[in-house]
């Protein structure tokens, strides 16, 4: 009996000797890969690459593998000290089998990430949704640390959310809960990347703002943002921020419109789910405080009076690292 007790103690310690994990945030515009200290949540090192989704899923897989290999080589941490590789991808995920079921912003469908990456790496592979990993990161080390009842909403290439109730993520019957970006805000509205029309994402994402600005510029409207544009390059959150600082009429108009739609979507979430806290993050929220302030003010005004009086808003605290830190803890996920 003493032998088995000692063996159990050894196995337990061996498991927790693995101090690090690799976290990957696979988004519509970038792949961020990081080595994370699981005790502190500190990002030890990271690699950032452009997704270049227009080149197809094969290119995304190639970039993903390159990023992980580069990180492992540069970090010089022995594999024996790394417990897993966790990946958060923008889209609907089969978590049990590690498959991206559908990710319009990545142009990936029925892509078995776990199977592909298991052929290249000896570490266990775990796959989740990009907002799921952001919520895990913020829950463990960020704005959600002291709250077990919140909704995490990120605005970037798309608009997504994750719902935390009683300290656990709500996945829904098919594992696709939290798709706030695909709330219909206009029955006969703009086309969305998902194939539907009138989705919130088509009105409130950075991509939507970019499309509105570019459309106006093509029609001859002048804007301060033209001073920052480069041929073949996309409009960034930083460009939008700088243009708003200069009180540019076109950019302010497009961002205000996006805040109007996003606040309506958030008000619907507040009325339906009644969380204690809404955490807002993503590049646009971080870079453009005007957008954040406008959104939360209007969301509170559009919500029912009782939940509106109690709801708290916070910006995500971990910035770009929310996702990679959360992804590093996917192995602890309980479905």
Overview of the molecule:
The protein folds into 2 domains: 2-137 and 322-332, 2-Layer Sandwich (Nucleotidyltransferase, domain 5), CATH 3.30.420.40; 146-316, ATPase, nucleotide binding domain (Nucleotidyltransferase, domain 5, 2-Layer Sandwich). The protein has helices at 2-17, 57-75, 113-118, 130-141, 201-204, 206-218, 237-245, 249-273, 283-287, 289-302, 305-310, 321-327; strands spanning 20-26, 30-37, 43-50, 82-89, 92-94, 99-103, 108-112, 125-129, 150-155, 159-165, 168-169, 277-281, 312-315. It has a 5-stranded mixed beta sheet with strand order 3-2-1-4-8, sandwiched between helices. A 5-stranded mixed beta sheet has the order 11-10-9-12-13. It is built from 12 helices and 13 strands. It has 335 residues and is of the alpha/beta class. 41% of the residues lie in helices and 22% in strands. Strand 9 and strand 10 form a beta hairpin.
List unreliable stretches of 5+ residues.
1-16
The helix fraction, in percent, is 40-55%
User: What proportion strand?
Assistant: 15-25%
User: Any idea of the CATH class of the largest domain?
Assistant: Alpha Beta
Number of helical elements = 12
The CATH superfamily title of the largest domain: ATPase, nucleotide binding domain
Biggest sheet: strand arrangement: 3-2-1-4-8
Separation of termini?
34 Å
- For the record, the CATH architecture of the largest domain stands as 2-Layer Sandwich
